[in-house]
Specification:
about 280 residues; alpha/beta; Rossmann fold; 8-stranded mixed β-sheet; two-stranded antiparallel ribbon; 10 strands; about 20% strand
């Protein structure tokens, strides 16, 4: 692990374990498996909030949410494997690796009990992580993702492959800027298809049912990249059954912006859900 910071350690009130509290922003690389992730940690004694990105997004997408919450919180962001300008390539871009990466970042930064916030793909990662680690999570905010719905079939797989094949015509031009992942069209398609399997009612439903920490959804409206007609709204509607079964999960807000714009246009709703979780603790 590389980078510089100032600070020390303090006892975690919930476990007696020691938690690193930096007093200034730390930015560096965290090794994990065969790669390393670019991580930023604002430090401080506030509640640690770990932000999990959209599938091919970067930590910069959270800047408005972070600004709205302000410096009283400890904000930890990172770029997943081969995303952003610095995180390294890997032989493993699986969903399981993405969940493992949460643990790697938390361990490297000495964080014991975070509030986890995920958007889109990151919402699935957040749901799985808090479901598996109820004693280590303060709560979760899931932003327009992690809805159990069987949307993947052979026709959808074909659409996904075609979409990334088209996008691959321009993505190489943007890779030096960090705006697109350093992954092939096949790899990106594989990741998108895998999340379709992770999202199935049979797979995701039990994960959500097992969540025992306060969890809030912030939902967008309208379409997402590659969706058609009312597909996305039908997926969101699946949450009615989820909230009916699990009292720990609620819908905090449904906002006007679409899936891709929610962190830009409705960041206040996301920040409000984070505060709602923290106020319950």
């Amino acid at each position: 692990m590389s980078g510089r910071c100032q600070g020390g350690v303090s006892p975690d009130a919930d476990s007696g374990r020691m938690t690193t509290n930096t007093t200034s922003t730390w930015a560096g690389m965290v090794p994990v498996d065969d790669t390393a992730l670019a991580v930023t940690d604002t430090g401080g004694p506030g509640i640690p909030v770990v932000y999990l990105n959209g599938q091919f997004a970067t930590q910069g997408y959270w800047r408005r949410v972070i600004a709205d919450l302000g410096p009283g919180w400890r904000h930890i962001t990172y770029d997943e494997r081969a995303r952003g300008r610095k995180s390294g390539r890997s032989a493993d871009y699986s969903f399981a690796a993405a969940v493992r990466d949460v643990d790697a970042v938390l361990a490297a930064r000495g964080v014991r009990r975070p509030l986890v916030v995920g958007w889109s793909y990151g919402a699935f990662v957040a749901a799985h992580w808090v479901s598996r680690n109820p004693d280590r999570a303060l709560g979760a905010v899931l932003v327009d993702g992690a809805q159990p719905f069987d949307w993947l079939d052979a026709a959808m797989e074909k659409r996904i492959r075609a979409l990334f094949k088209r996008l691959n015509l321009v993505m190489p031009l943007l890779r030096p800027t960090g705006l697109t992942p350093r992954m092939s069209a096949v790899q990106m398609g594989d990741c998108n298809i895998e999340i379709g399997r992770v999202a199935s009612a049979r797979e995701l439903g039990p994960v959500l049912d097992d969540i025992t920490v306060p969890t809030r959804y912030v939902l967008a409206s309208g379409t997402s990249l590659g969706s058609r007609g009312d597909e996305q709204e039908r997926i969101r509607a699946s949450l009615g059954a989820v909230t009916g079964r699990n009292p720990n999960i609620r819908i905090s807000a449904k906002v006007a912006s679409n899936h891709g714009a929610i962190l830009r246009k409705d960041f206040r709703a996301v920040a409000a859900a984070v505060r709602e979780i923290a106020d319950r603790d």
